[in-house]
Amino acid sequence: MMEDIKAGHVNCVIVKDLSRLGRDYIEAGRLIQKTFPAFSVRFIALTDHFDSLTADYNETSLTIPIKNFVNDSYARDISCKVRSHQKIKRENGEFIGAFAVYGYKKSEENKKRLEPDEYAADIVRKIFAWKIEGFSNLAIAEKLNGLGILSPMEYKRMQGEKFRTGFVTGARARWSPVAVKRILVNESYIGTLVQGKEEKINYKLKKSVMKPQEEWTRVPEAHEAVISREDFELVQDLLQVDTRAGNGDEKAHLYAGILFCGDCMEPMQRRINRYKGRERVSFICATKNKGGECTRHTISEEDLRVLVLTGLRQQIALFLEKSNVLAHIERLEVDFEEVVSFDMELKRLHKEQGKYLSLRAGLYEDLKRGIIMEEDFKNFRLIYERRYQELQQAVSSQEDAVKALFKSGVAAGINLERLKSAMQITELDRMTLMTFVKRILVYEDKRVYLEFRHKELFSKAAMLFKYAEAKQCPGREESLHGRLV
Q1: Less Cβ crowding at N or C end of the chain, within 10 Å?
Q2: By residue range, what is the domain housing residue 24?
Q3: pLDDT of residue 190
Q4: Residue that terminates a domain, selected from 37, 59, 91
Q5: Structure confidence at residue 435 (pLDDT)
């Protein structure tokens, strides 16, 4: 219409009321008072009884601006109500998006709930499994393209959805490392409904901006998970480290991303030495390899394999040996506060909290005696208060770990079935290693330290074992605590 007005093809604009011209009072006023008169265009609003040809000064300069402002306010009010309603729906775990994330579809019975799309969900499971096996994001993307698997956008198109995205770079969307990573970091696959990632700048603009992650709306267990929480957390750890494959290899080596020098904490680098047709694989500290101030920490791949496999099996066997006692706790009448009193870590944290409370209280006496200045008093008080709060958070975390075991059951919390299956392995594989081991540290004397995943849960389970012993066999001092790392 504006193009026709500028071309001189229109001499009159008629609308039902002023709100049909626009609800932005600035833009509507500009059109009525400047643009239309400039092109000799007559403007008529029928129900508002306004005709620019016969309107007087009061109507044009007073009545019309007020009505436009009221229309603008109405639009703002509607926008606020819609946002508030959408926020409530998101917090209630209702899906309000137009398109379900890849791997899910809207339920036929309830469009506000997601359910797995079995074909796409299976692809998501494969992507996570490949990542754990050591494939890079690029290798996974190439593998998917090589298998002819449709990218998320092409799959939605095939399903008949009019889906659009700004990530397309060609006529036919293909899998890319970025698309793979978007799937690997998406919490939706563990059953958490994540919404409210973007918001419009204001009700007058269509442009949206990304909100900080801490402001996103997350509702756990809002729909069925297609990836276990353990595997999801494992992949998040892997994304933080370098797991690129070597030249000519399809995937990274067995220990990629978890093998570190025990002294400088830098990743160990894999070396292959070939001599007279023989191949010897070993690992060396990356710092030393670059000429830095550390020792070689050399260990052969075979020695490392034997040590890790032996340590892993011993650790699992040690825990399974006590699993029956731990499972028995679930049948006891347990007082949570009584159990917590057996937790040595909680005792240590409470003791340290008391120390900082005493130090903080002593500051007032030191200030009175003139031992410290007022500025020092403020600085030290802030330091002690900050440390006390950090310890309080640690205490809460420790207590939550115990509560989690009671809530889900000891067997579920530790996942005994997965532990039992791992005991059957005779050869170390990437999946088993990444499932149980968080980090491997190699020292110069060839000592190898395994830091296990779910260390806190194992520690709490050890504490519960000690509690069970005391409950059933008072006087026995032997416990699992201290042997289970």
Answers
A1: N
A2: 2-91
A3: 93
A4: 91
A5: 78
